[in-house]
Specification:
Layout (H helix, E strand, L loop, with lengths): L2 H4 L3 H31 L5 H28 L8 H18 L9 H33 L3 H30 L5 H25 L16 H9 L2 H31 L6 H25 L2 H19 L5 H14 L2 H21 L4 H30 L5 H4 L15 H11 L1 H16 L4 H26 L21
Helix pairs in contact: 2-5, 2-6, 2-7, 2-9, 3-5, 3-14, 4-5, 4-7, 5-13, 5-14, 6-7, 6-10, 6-13, 9-13, 9-14, 9-16, 9-17, 10-11, 10-12, 11-12, 11-13, 11-17, 14-16
């Protein structure tokens, strides 16, 4: 591509953000409310909720990788990625509604577990069908280091803005009464948006992938996985995308219960949610600017340090005002665990192409997406296992039929549960952020390394062009000079 072709149009960035925001709706709405919905509206025992999440997480490890590999091999008149958006969008919309459907209170626990496991797995398949394709499109559309950072920032802004919008809509529709019918109303609104967004991207995006003139034999799935496992850059960026979002998921999953039982002010969530997500939205351009001036790893060190310290401080919060202040501090760096790994993945795809001779965006994006889903799984499983062991009691106001004997007053929990909730929103997530920072420190693709790769590819392309002209006897045309951005290696850690 020429230098101009490396730049992405505003329309393309909007479409990339729109496609990724499908996952943003699920991560934001589901992240804040799904676990509480399972525990206090569906009235499923914490251990069974943990098993649901664990089953779906194991399914994700197979599902994401398979769909990623299949999308690499897809060849239709619509391209490789777009058909998955066409059919995955409506499937995801239907599955989203199914997972927020409340079964009758007297439904046996085993049957509830089966139903929500299948519904959750369906969401996983639909989400993968969309998410993997969006991750695979970015490295296909541009190879410019800073443009990828800029596009990733644009995408994360869109994901946060749309996710926040629908999380607020969900909060307003459901309120504090948590009526089953209100969850279905919210699900219908979100499902309609999912369908519209995916089909809009299908109609508006254009793929740039050009298949090689001589098809390269594709190895089996086990060989593909082995190649990925030998790529250190891919392993480190995947660890970042597993550990960082796990920290965010732990805090996000437990914040509603934390507000209700520890702060004894469930309504504060309606204020905390826009404060945290809104601050994250406003500070994304700042992190993009820092990344362009230094490196993506510097962004993670700065943002991760602030995020970890703010999370630790949550353990000591006991007032509404302190919660709001920490919400702002967390929001400042909340996007970093998502922004940096997403912007690094295209660099890894190119590094992988040099090693293997093939473009494998699909399977790498599939494995990468698996890490994010496993982070959600880890967050929910840890939450529910800890709550079960601590003695969590479902609220009698929504989970007790008339005539049943009440064990504990509504809207209160044993002291051990309250302490577990404090640890789950603060110190434990901070440890995962520290692990992600270690992976960022070890990530080998710096701006200087990327610039050297661009120079090698430009030289190889010029050499191939010259050889072709000499073979045909044509006079060589003046070759376009490809400008490689200057990178100060002293800025690379």
């Amino acid at each position: 591509m020429t230098v101009d072709e490396e730049k992405l149009s505003l329309k393309t960035k909007i479409l990339l953000a729109l496609g990724q925001s499908v996952e943003g709706i699920w991560i934001t709405v589901g992240g804040y409310y799904l676990n509480k919905f399972f525990l206090e509206t569906c009235c499923i025992e914490p251990a069974l909720v943990g098993l649901i999440q664990l089953g779906v997480g194991l399914f994700d490890a197979f599902n994401d990788t398979l769909i990623g590999a299949l999308s690499d091999k897809t060849n239709t008149r619509w391209g490789r990625r777009r058909p998955w958006l066409l059919f995955g969008g409506p499937f995801l919309a239907a599955a989203y509604v199914a997972v927020w459907n409340t079964l009758p209170l007297r439904t046996p626990q085993g049957l509830k577990m089966l139903y929500y496991t299948l519904a959750f797995m369906s969401v996983s398949v639909g989400l993968t069908s969309v998410r993997v394709q969006m991750s695979a499109l970015l490295p296909e559309l541009t190879s410019d280091y800073n443009e990828r950072m800029n596009a990733s920032g644009f995408i994360v802004v869109g994901v946060n803005a749309i996710g926040l919008t629908f999380a607020i809509l969900h909060t307003v529709i459901v309120g504090t009464d948590n009526e089953p019918s209100s969850f279905m109303e919210s699900a219908a609104v979100c499902a309609a948006a999912i369908l519209i967004f995916t089909w809009t991207v299908f109609c508006g995006i254009k793929e740039r992938y050009e298949p090689p003139a001589v098809p390269i034999p594709s190895p089996g799935i086990l060989t593909e996985l082995a190649l990925a496992a030998r790529n250190k850059a891919f392993l480190y960026v995947t660890l970042m995308y597993l550990a960082g979002p796990t920290a965010v998921t732990l805090t996000q999953t437990n914040i509603a219960l934390f507000c209700k039982y520890v702060l004894q002010d469930e309504s504060i969530l309606l204020l905390l949610l826009p404060v945290v997500q809104g601050t994250a939205l406003l500070t994304i351009p700042l992190w993009v600017l820092i990344g362009n001036k230094t490196s993506k790893r510097h962004v993670y060190f700065a943002g991760g340090s602030l995020l970890a310290l703010s999370m630790v401080a949550l353990n000591f919060v006991n007032s509404r005002s302190a919660a709001i202040v920490l919400g702002v501090l967390i929001g400042i760096s909340l996007a970093v665990p998502y922004l940096v790994p997403v912007s690094m993945l295209p660099d890894v795809v190119e590094e992988d192409e040099e090693r293997t001779g093939r473009r494998r965006e699909g399977i790498l994006a599939g494995l990468f997406t698996t890490a994010l889903k496993l982070s959600v799984t880890a967050g929910s499983v840890l939450t529910n296992l800890f709550l079960e062991q601590a003695g969590y009691v479902a609220p009698s106001s929504s989970c007790t039929d008339e005539g049943d004997v009440l064990v504990i007053e509504a809207d209160s929990q044993p002291e051990a549960v309250l302490q577990v909730m404090r640890w789950l929103v603060g110190p434990i997530p901070a440890l995962f952020i520290v692990l992600a920072m270690f992976a960022a420190w070890r990530f080998p693709i710096t701006p200087a390394v990327h610039a050297e790769r661009v120079a090698r590819r430009a030289a190889a392309a010029a050499s191939a062009s010259k050889a072709t002209l000499e073979a045909t006897g044509e006079a060589p045309a003046e070759l376009e000079v490809v400008k490689v951005p200057h990178c100060d290696t002293r800025m690379s850690l």
